[in-house]
Structure formats: structure tokens, C-alpha cells
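Hi everyone,

Forwarding the result from last night's run.
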Amino acid sequence: MKSKHAKVWLFYGVLLTLFAVLTYFLVINGESLEKQVQAGSGVATTGVSGHASLNAFFGSVWINICQPAALMLLQMIAILFFARFFGYLFGKIGQPAVIGEILAGIVLGPSILGKLYPDFFNFLFAHDSLNNIYYLSQVGLILFMFVIGMELNLNALKYKIRETWVISHSGILFPFLLGMSLAYYLYKDFATANTGYVPFALFIGISMSITAFPVLARIIQEKDLTRTHLGTMTLGSAAIDDVTAWCLLACVIAISKTGSMLSSLFTILLTILYVVVMLLVVRPFLKKLGDVYRTSELVNKSMMAFIFLLLLISSYLTQVIGIHALFGAFLAGVVMPPLTNFRKIVIDKVEDVSVAFLLPLFFVFTGLRTEVGLLNTPHLWCLCGIIILVAIIGKFGGIALTARFMGESWHDSLSMGILMNTRGLMELIVLNIGYEMGVLPPRLFVMLVIMALFTTFMTTPMMSLIKRAFPPKNKQQERIYRQTVGLFKALVAVGNPDNGRPLLNVAKTVLDGYKNSLFVNVLHITVGTDTNLFMGEQYLEEGFKLVRTEAESLGIPIETEYKVTDNIGHEIVHTVNDDDYDFLLVGSGSSMVVMPGKKRIPLLARIPLLRVLYRNINEKQVFYPGSLIKDKSRYFIENCHCSVGVFVNRNFVQIRKTIVVLNREDDVFLLRYARRLLRNDKAVTIRIMDLKGLYTTSDIVAQGILSLLNEFPDSVKMCKGTMDDGSYMVNNFTFMLISYQTWNQLVATEKEKLAFVPSTLIINKKRSRFHKINSVVDHQKNSED
């Protein structure tokens, strides 16, 4: 083998040498030939100085920078960087990233960058160079609207159709009427000479009526409202609002382009015909075509090419009809085959490019158009405030009052009003269409953009304010019910739903009790910032099948929850504290390494600091204990208002031979969990390892141990072995209970003692908010049982 490799490298060396020698001779002879040709033609050969060569190089670089393609790439780099940066900052304060991305455009635009560094601004965003960014942003919008259409679940609109239909349309009619009334006073000062009152008033009306469905859906998910009555009603109303608003926008565009209601009838009739053909002809055809992919995990390139072709044709036809290409893209998404797996694959292919790459170009391009300096008088700022006030009164007031009339509580009515008052991206699309058609002049465009930002920004803080002012009744009723029946509510957070089965087994055996009825919510969180509610509901049905089966076999009532967030730790803590959980159970990796039954020590284990990590005992798995309580687990323990358990799975099968480690007087609470183990499973045996002789020095610990020994004399014994004896720990125990404080102390001072522990539940105790402690023994018997 070595000789073969040597031959290969020898051949490669000879090849390179021949190439270098031949190239050298060709260059030398070529230069001689060049001199002969120049001498024959009478052209003098002149040398170039080093300084001149350097200047020529820099000149060439500057010419390359100014090339249209290079300038476009530089613009995209600046736009994407600032859009993501500002989006990240606003995400940290609980605001939608769209606000930060629009502000990034304002910062890069004439309002700030143009004022501070006019020369650099004119170079980077020269007026003639923005067309490329505009066209790319339009492609991004077309793809995004296609995704929005695909995520719209028409079947979901059938439920509570009466209530959601009335609420959504009241959220359009009220602000639309107020917007047209406002346009009556704005028309004289702001409308251009070529703009009639009807298109001007219609665009102001529609700009007041829009709801940003994607932003609203994200807020609902972040607020844990997706599966609540409020979330369902709001999403249903917003979906109907979205469809109605786009149909209304198509009519407004038709009227604005033709100049009169009568002339627009032809466009509207063509639009209706087109929608009918798409829904009654194209949609059934695509449904049959999609049946091929009902169980497929892939969509081939030919099918994707056909989908993109259909998308482009639909967008082109609606553009030709006169109602904008975005309506065609939205409709193309709506008629896609109603197969969850198929839509998921297509959405995943399209969404990343549109949302992460092309859509920020649209936001920043809108910001570049927004010259805040145009509002240069107090009068104009007052008008801007009036526009914001009218928008809020129309949308928020119309929906809240209608919802209240329909029988909703004040909390839900006000929450629906403020949620659907979110305008965000959809508003910007409408405003840009009006701006490009010349209906909205620059100053009014700036005011309406500020209105869109303000109404979006106010949603999150207003939701918190409403929640404080009008606490949801179901929360109050739940607290009363839990106090009455003794419901013990546990949250099991899993990185993978399939890994939730061991955690459920631990929860059933350790947390269930006679005095408390155990209820478990299994939560799985995916890291990300984008929301796909359509796929989220499907994931709840399919992804948790094994967990539900395990829960049924154990007899545990459970709920399942799926969330998407960019901060898992914060979301788990928020869920635990906001929903008043009594216990959080999470899994932790054990950092295991498999050691074969040989005497040879691995190379890594020869390092002195790591030698203790690798022990060779009967082919068992050993691990580094210090890595178990990672930053996230520590974050849970320090920030949750309830007790937290971190489960270390080391080939866990079931809880049988259990060791309870007592190292401090405060560890006595572990005896309550030991009692639960014994009561829930008669096959469990308990060995109490008293590391500090607390049985003889602490009355509280002694009372707790004696109480346990008296109740279960055959199953509970004091442990004679020590944690230093690895073979004793491995061969005699399958489960261990230890406190978080003791674990940390052992890791810091005697971590070698933890090298051979079995599957372990590390518990940090906090006092339950629903139980009072009267005495040690009574508390051990009753408070959590």
C-alpha cells in the first residue's frame, strides 16, 4: 500500500516539474517573439514602473467595485447584514423582526445614512442602481405570498365560521369606512393632480383594514395561544380577513388603474373568472397530481419545476389582468394539493430563500423609500398621529366591540382587537403598491409606514397590559380547581418526542401520588424563528404518537405541545412560570463513552486530568459527571418558580433498585420522592446512602428515615456501600435520587464518586405554591403525595 502511494506522489511530482519547465520555456520564447513583432512594426517597448503598476492595480479594483454586478452584491451584503442585526435586536425585546428590518432600511436610507454620509450613500444606493434590488425584492414577495397561500388551511375556516366571519369583516368595514372618511380631509393637501378621490380614498381605506397574518401567527405562538379559544378565534378571523383583504385589494387596484367603478367591472369580472378556474379546475387537477406524493418524502425536480411554472403563470396572468402579481402568487399557493407532507416539502424548499434572503430586501427597500425628513413640520407630525389614532380606533375598536357583542369575554375581545391591529408586512405590500401606482405621495407614504410600524410594535406590550388588567377566567378557574383536587402539574420538556417515553416513566413513578393527581404536558421545541402553524398542528398529531401510546400504557393524562422559538431556555422557563407548573422534568446527555473490556488505556485517557474519566469495569459505560448540568439545565433551575428535575439516562429501562443520596440536611425532601416510588411500584427497593452521618446528627433527617423504615420495613434499608466502590454502584442500582446542591458539591470536590452512578434524577426543590408545610413528617406524608 505504501509503495503504491509513493508511486502516485512521484508521478504527480514529475508532472508538476514538466509543467513548470515547459511553461518557463514558452514564456521566454514568447517574450522574444513579442520583441521581434514590435520591432518590425516600429512600436517601442516601454517598461512600467512599480508605482505606476500599483496605481493601475488600484484603478482596476475601483472599476471592478463600480461594476453593476459588484455594486448590487455590495448592496445586498449591507442590506442583509443590517436587516438581520436590527431584526435580532428587536427580537431580543420581544418584537417582530420585521420592525427591525424596516428600521434597517430607514437607517441605510436618506433619513440617516444620507444625512450623515451623503457621498457614501449616493455611491452605495445610487438611484439608478436600485432597480435590481427592487426586482429581486418583488421575486421574494411573490415566493412569500405563495408560501402564505400554501399555509392557509381552508378546512380550518369551517369551524366557528359564523363568529370568525362576522368578527373579521367588522375588522375590515369599520377601519375601511374611517379610512375613507379620513381621505376626504387628506385629499386636498396630499393627492397628486392625476389621482382621483375614489382610488385615493380606497387605498387609504384598505391601508387601515389590513392585518399582518404571518406576524400575528408568530405572536400567537410566542404567547402560547395557538391551541386556546382566543388563538383559534383570532387565527380564524385573521385568515378570513387575509383572504377578504386581498380580494378587496384586487378590486381597489382595478378601480385605481381604470379610473372609475364602471371601467373596473371588466377587470373585476376577469378576476372572478380567474379565481373560479383556479379553484374549480386547477385545484382538483393538482389534488390528483399530489396523490402521487401522499407518502413520499421527496418532491422531484420535475414536479418543483412544474410548481414554479404554475406560480409564475398565475402571477403573470393576474399582473396582466391588472390586480398585481402578488394576488396570483397567493392564489397559486391556495390551490396546491391539500397534503401536509407535500406542502411541507415545498414550503421548506421555498421559504428559506424567500424569507431569509429575498424578503429582507423588500423591507429595506421600503425603508429606503421612507424619507422621515419629509415630515418637517409639527402639522405633518400631528397628521401622522391622527392617522395612527384612526387606524387603531377602526381596527382595534371594531373587532373588540364586535367580539364582545358575539359573547366573548373582555379579555378575549380586547386581545383579538389588539392582535388583529397588527399590520406589519402585509400593510407594507399595500403601501408599496399604492406608492408605485402614484396614488400615495411620498409624505403620506411615510406617515402610513410609521403607522404600520407603530401598530405592529404596540401589539406585544398591549397584550401584556390586557392580560394584567383582565386576567383570563380559565387561569383563575384552573388555580381554584388545582387547589381543590390537588392536581400536580408537571411539564416534560423533550428535545425529541421519541425520547419522552423514559421521562414519562420517571414522571409516573416519581411524581404521581395519592394526595395529588398527576397531569403531564409534553413540550417539544424546535429552534427557529419562522412559524408554520399548518405544519405545527400536523406535527402534534404525528410526532407525539409514541409518547401518547406510552402515556396510555402508564395511565397518565397528558397534553402535547409543539413550539418554534429562537431561545429554547427562555421559552421553557416562560411556559413553566406563566402556566404555574409544579415540576419541570428535562433530560440531560450523559457524555458517555463506551469502554471495552480490555486492559489497554486509550490515548486520551493517558492525559492526567482526563484519567479519572476513563475507568475499565466489566465493559460498563462511564461518563464525565461535570458535563451533565449544562448551562441550559442550570438556567432552568435558577429561573423556574417550581421544582426542577434533570434526568440522566444511562440505558434506563425501569426504576427498581434505587439509591437515595443524603449529603445535607436539606436533602431530606428526597425521602418524599422515595415514598412515592415505593407507593407507586411495589417492586421498588430503596437504599439510603448517608454520606455525612445525618441519621445520628440531624433530628429532621432521622425522623424522615424512621418514618420511611416503619412504613416500608422490607423495602427500605440503610446503604452499607460507598460511592467510591464503582462495582458496587454499577451492580446494585438502576436508579439514583440526588439533590442538585449535593450533585454540584460532589462534582466540584469529589467528582470521581459520580463516575459510576446509574440513571439519575437530579432534583432542585422549591416550595409548591399550592401547599403549606406544617411539619416535617406531615409534609413528607401528605404535601406532595
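The chain has a mean pLDDT of 79.

Cheers,
N.
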